[in-house]
Specification:
about 160 residues; two-stranded antiparallel sheet; 7 strands
């Protein structure tokens, strides 16, 4: 089985014209180490999830057009391109768009964004706590209640 991924030529984009924000907030190694230490102290089992199609789920605000990929040109419209409604790998704004979409989803689910580390999201209830750390297209999460962890991973 052959897998292929359509990748945009992001190196052709011009700052201020094609995009504004390009970076994704990335958890510092120290923040991840602190999360692991806190989880160990509280006896919380952590899970790690790699979101395979992360950037493909990110909505973009700018109008972005791409050429037809080689060998996939429409013979009836060889000079036409595609207008993107979602991000593609290779776009400068893809990581930022993904972070915005995921953080919006987590906040909608009742998690609070960290004030110091904005890649850490926490939902705290008297008998339970959910912690979510975002690292580009990876997510580290843990609950005090392990059954809720499985429920959360299915929602993601």
């Amino acid at each position: 089985m052959i897998k292929a991924r359509l990748v945009a030529k992001g190196y052709n984009q011009e700052e201020g014209i094609d995009y504004d924000e390009t970076y994704a907030l990335v958890a510092r190694l120290e923040a991840i180490q602190m999360l692991c230490a806190f989880a160990a102290h509280m006896n919380i089992k952590l899970y790690q999830m790699d979101v395979k199609s992360a950037f493909l789920n990110a909505c973009i605000e700018e109008e972005v057009y791409v050429e037809q990929p080689p060998r996939f040109e429409n013979p009836h419209y060889p000079d036409h391109g595609y207008k993107l409604s979602k991000a593609l790998y290779g776009l400068k704004q893809a990581p930022w768009a993904w972070y915005e979409r995921l953080s919006g989803f987590l906040i909608e689910k009742g998690l609070k964004r960290g004030k110091v580390d904005t890649t850490l999201f926490i939902k705290h209830k008297p008998s339970n706590m959910l912690m979510v750390q975002i690292y580009v297209d990876d997510i580290i999460f843990g609950f005090i209640n392990e059954a809720l962890c499985e429920k959360f991973s299915k929602v993601m």
